[in-house]
Design a protein that fits this description.
The protein is mainly alpha-helical. The chain has a domain of 67 residues. Helices cover 50% and strands 0% of the residues. The chain has five helices and no strands. It starts with a helix and ends in a 44-residue tail after the last helix. The relative contact order is 0.10.
Length: 119
């Protein structure tokens, strides 16, 4: 997940509301909001937001991918599987099956399947 300044501001507004409802400290409310959005803590949110901003400034796609992979949601997914939809044909791999009729279908390369024998 890439976080922007507006995301951080929205999280802070939510934390302010949570603070009133839960009668807790602002830091505790920030942690609650972070967990509601799938993060481990508020500090992780800030770390990802900072890396996202740096990656955006540098225009470095690999850094952006590293930011995504730092999120625990993506660490259990093999890197080759983090594919959205294909915007162009992939001629780098051989595919014995007929191409998908739906260009919006998620396609996972068979080379990423576990247990596949290479030979």
């Amino acid at each position: 997940m890439i976080l922007t300044d507006s995301d951080i501001k929205a999280f802070k507004r939510q934390a302010k509301s949570q603070k009133r409802q839960l009668h807790c400290s602002h830091m505790q409310a920030l942690d609650v909001v972070a967990r509601q959005h799938g993060f481990d803590s508020w500090h992780q949110v800030l770390k990802i937001a900072e890396r996202s901003a740096q990656a955006h400034l540098q225009g470095d796609i690999s850094t952006t991918q590293r930011v995504l992979l730092d999120n625990s949601l993506y660490t259990s997914v093999p890197v080759g599987w983090l594919i959205g939809r294909k915007s162009y044909p992939d001629f780098s791999s051989t595919n014995d099956a007929a191409p998908s009729a739906n260009p919006n279908e998620l396609e996972v390369p068979t080379s990423r399947w576990r247990g596949e024998k290479h030979g």
